[in-house]
Design a protein that fits this description.
homodimer, alpha+beta, Arc Repressor Mutant, subunit A, Dna Ligase, domain 1, 2 domains, 3-stranded mixed beta sheet, two-stranded antiparallel sheet, 6 helices, DNA-binding
Chain lengths: 144, 144
DNA sequence: CTCTATGCAAAACCTTTGCATAGAA
DNA sequence: TTCTATGCAAAGGTTTTGCATAGAG
């Protein structure tokens, strides 16, 4: 069961149809191994499939999110980016404020405490988002 | 040293000028005790100061952020909101996905682990953002 | 006086949608 | 044949800016 199969089943379950553009976009999406903006994805899609329009990329991205293959993230700087979701376990982000480097991390102790914290306030946990900002080793070397 | 003084000093430090609209907007801003959108702030400003334009609210809000009085937050649902910053210690958010209720919290254990986590990856911590989503007690009562 | 702040309106952006046509089932 | 999908272009919505005038220092 890979991403493409998940997507095809999702398409079927919604009574939608298969199409080349959708599979082409999915393929390009899966081969970009970072958090991408719609424009970045579109640019990459155009290289392989010049005839695909922006609107189709846009609509397919929404489908991917709905189908659990993609997650839309809104960052502190106001940008919107998308990341792979299927087969990727939950993770949080370390982000370098100098160079933008992004590291995916999970800290089980923090995860457990987050659940406790929510329960303590009467919440039933569903999901969360944690972004930790700072300067990475490299950036501190060059600019002391 | 209150917010208004902080703002005036900030204005001076940047070689800018005092003005009634700016102080009026700051005053209204400070009296809204929740995370507000630009439009909500503008609506509130218009009641007290009908002649102030949207652009001035917009530009003043940017100044407030720059001056450390206000923080711009981008939420998972794509909305942008602003919260008071000066005199408010750092905090994280619990957000009800049903009713939108927002609780400000701090968990010292989590804070400490976040710092450790960053250090472990070679980052020097600057700030972070943690939003925990779930359903609150009330919403689970009404819809079981 | 001189330089900044303001209100207005328009521009720039980004996101989303309508529609006629192409394509899947 | 009967739907849905697509590309294009245009509409929406929000954020940002230019400019002439008002206002602060």
């Amino acid at each position: 069961m890979n991403e493409t199969m998940v997507f095809e089943r999702f398409i079927e379950s919604k009574g939608l149809k298969h199409s080349k553009p959708r599979l082409g976009i999915l393929d390009v999406f899966l081969n970009i191994e970072k958090h991408m903006s719609i424009d970045e994805l579109w640019a990459a899609v155009r290289i392989k499939h010049p005839s695909i329009g922006y609107a189709t990329v846009y609509r397919t991205l929404k489908l991917l999110c709905e189908g659990g293959l993609c997650r839309e993230l809104h960052f502190e700087d106001g940008t919107t980016r998308f990341e792979h979701l299927y087969g990727h376990d939950h993770h949080d982000h370390l982000i370098c404020t100098e160079c933008g480097r992004l590291v995916e991390v999970v800290d089980e102790k923090i995860e457990a405490l987050q659940v406790k914290l929510m329960r303590r306030h009467g919440f039933s946990p569903k999901y969360h988002r944690m972004d930790l900002y700072g300067t990475c080793k490299n950036c501190r070397k060059s600019e002391p």
